[in-house]
Amino acid sequence: MIISESSASPRIVPTLTENKQTTVNSDDNQIIYLPGTNCVIKSNISLSGFTSYKVGGKAQWYSAPRDLMAIKATVEYAQALDLPITILGAGSNLLVSDEGIPGMVIATRHFRYKYFDNQTGRLTVAAGESIPSLAWEAASLGWEGLEWSVGIPGTVGGAVVMNAGAHNNCMGEMLVSAELLSPDGTLETVNRSQLGYKYRSSLLQGSERIVTQATFQLQPGADPAKVTSRTREHKQHRLSTQPYNFPSCGSVFRNPLPRTAGWLIEQTGLKGYQIGGAQVAQLHANFIVNRGGAQANDIFRLIRHIQRQIQDQWSILLEPEVKMIGRFPVLDGYS
Ligand SMILES: Cc1cc2nc3c(=O)[nH]c(=O)nc-3n(C[C@H](O)[C@H](O)[C@H](O)COP(=O)(O)OP(=O)(O)OC[C@H]3O[C@@H](n4cnc5c(N)ncnc54)[C@H](O)[C@@H]3O)c2cc1C
C-alpha cells in the first residue's frame, strides 16, 4: 500500500497494482509516499511561488524529486493513473493558468549534482541545477564558456529544452549530450545533433521526454579573475537593459528576424500598456512585468493584445516564447 495523509486525517489509497485508477480525487490535501524513495507527492500545491511571473493556480499533484530513482517512480505513478505530466524547471519561461494544471507536475529544482571534468573540460550536471549558479562557479574555477548565461534564471533542463541563449550564444551550441527519460521509463543519451536545435527551439519542446542530465563543453584553464569579471559584466549589462525589478518571464515573444519583437512593440506605442497588473515593461518592450497582483489571465490578455496590434500594423504574427500551461480563454481566434 501507499500511505496517503490528508491534513484532516491519514488515509490509505490503493497502490497502483491493486487498483489502476484513471482519476484521482485530490480535493483535500493529500501526501503520497512513494515506496523505496524519499519522494512524496502532494495535492493542490500552488504554483505561483514556483514561477518567475509569480502567478498561476495549483498543481493537482506536485512532486519535487531529489534523485533519478524518485523521478522515475513519480513518472511511473503518474503513468499508472493516466495523469498528464508537466515538467517544471525554475518556472522562468512559464505562464501557468489561474485554473492551475491538471495531472502531475514534476519540479526538478531539487534534482542537483555537477561534475567538472578537468581532463575533458566537460561539465556534467543534473537537470535541476541553476544556470546562473553554474556560470558563477565555472568562472571561479577559470572555466570559460558560460559567462553569457549568467542572467538566465532557469535550470539546466529548461535551458536545454528552450535552447536558451543570449549575446549570440545558446545552450545548443555548448551541449555535448543530454540524458532523457521517456514516459515508459527508458533512459537514453542523445547528442546535440539529435535535438534539432534552432533559435530558441528544440525537438524536446512538446515532447514527453524529460531531460535528466546534460553535458556541456567548456574551456578550463583560464584566469578565474578574468572569467569572473566577464561574467559580472554580462550580469551588469542585463541589469541595465532589462527589468529585473519586477516579476517576468524574460522575453515574451521570439524575435521575428531580422526584426526584434521589442522594436516592433515599442514602435507600435505599447510600452507601458497595462491590463490588470500586467504591463509592457518601460525598459524593454519584449518583457511583460507583473506590477503587483497580476493574474495569469491579465498577462495572457496582454499577450493577445500585443499580437493583435502587431498583426494589424505590421502583418507579423508574433510567436510567444513563453510556454502557456493550463487552460486559457480563446480570444479572437489567436491560440
Ligand atoms: C528575467 C529573465 C530573463 C531571461 N533571460 C533570458 C535570456 O536571456 N535568454 C533566454 O533564452 N531565456 C531567458 N529567460 C527565459 C528563461 O529563463 C529560459 O527560457 C530558461 O531556459 C527556462 O528555464 P526553466 O528551468 O525556468 O524552465 P521552465 O520555465 O520551468 O520550463 C520551460 C519549458 O521547459 C520544460 N522543461 C523544463 N525543464 C525540463 C526538463 N528537465 N525536461 C523536459 N522539459 C523541461 C517545461 O515543461 C517548459 O515547457 C529569462 C527569464 C527571465 C525571468
Q: What sequence of helices (H) and strands (E) makes up the elements?
A: EEEEEHEEEEEHHEEHEEEHHEEEHE
Put simply, the count of helices is 7
Show unreliable segments: 1-24
Helix content: 10-25%
Q: Report the CATH topology name of the largest domain.
A: Uridine Diphospho-n-acetylenolpyruvylglucosamine Reductase, domain 3
Summarize the biggest pleated sheet. 7 strands, mixed
Q: Could you say which overall geometry the principal axes of the C-alpha atoms support?
A: globular
Bound molecules: flavin-adenine dinucleotide
CATH architecture of the largest domain: 2-Layer Sandwich
Strand order of the largest sheet: 2-1-3-4-5-8-6
Strand content: 25-35%
Any idea of the CATH class of the largest domain? Answer: Alpha Beta
What's the count of strands?
A: 19
- The end-to-end span amounts to 43 Å
Number of domains: 3
The average pLDDT score comes to 91
Going by helix content, strand content and strand pairing, the class is: alpha+beta
Radius of gyration: 21 Å
